[in-house]
């Protein structure tokens, strides 16, 4: 993939720190891990998204590390990253850099100007003594942080108990909905008592913070429940939420693109709240592929229960890719459907 404006800005800003041992975080195109080799010494890199990781891996011979793993940041005197969408994700990232990189580390975090806000500076200032903004170019700017303060801020993951669902949700910084229960997920939770009671092989596709995964495991006590998500932070959150609710022995979490690795015709039940954003951009392009993957993985007679925004044209898509589909419940904003693979 070609570098975008944020990549070009970060590559230019990094030239001032040539020769420093460097870690790259959340490269979405490979432009950073590939392009920084000439101006600095890239020793380690990692991405939250498995899709981004695979894209970047094509541009470097270095193996990726675990997301925000201390070994990725150890020894780094320059860390280059794209600014995450949420302040919580930025807080976790900045805290990890401050805790595990070198004392003289410089953090370069770039984003499009229209996505920057003063709160990002304030989050970085919680973990670094000095924060400044670069000059703008390519419609992007970088926030430049130095003087790390290790141990500042609260640790991750964080937990919150949802009284309405009697569920404790644990989440790492970059996970959609954080420690809350997403409003669409809550609609699906309201009909879990109607799930097929005999289902034993169950998957939550796009498990996020694991709230739906844990609730399904609780509703189907005989089932093996697995959460699948492309995000490393989501996989960790799913496991943390399961543990917080005493379900750690019955819930697994897998970092995967869709249902890759799942045998055809092996699942009794899939639940799904399909993702519709990628970073700061609206993106529903993955949904048709997810539904087709579910249709492949379900056994004959197996079911997909999914919740989606009611204005979206998902009903014919579900019928074409999975099977017979009916509406279970509907609100002005959300629709829950049950799709059954033909027997």
UniProtKB/TrEMBL annotation:
GO terms for biological process: methylation; rRNA processing. Keywords: Cytoplasm, Methyltransferase, rRNA processing, Transferase. PROSITE patterns: N6_MTASE. Residues 167-337 form the Methyltransferase small domain. Residues 6-145 form the RlmG N-terminal domain. It comes from Microlunatus sagamiharensis. GO terms for molecular function: N-methyltransferase activity; nucleic acid binding; S-adenosylmethionine-dependent methyltransferase activity. The keyword Transferase applies. This is 16S rRNA (Guanine1207-N2)-methyltransferase. CDD domains: AdoMet_MTases.
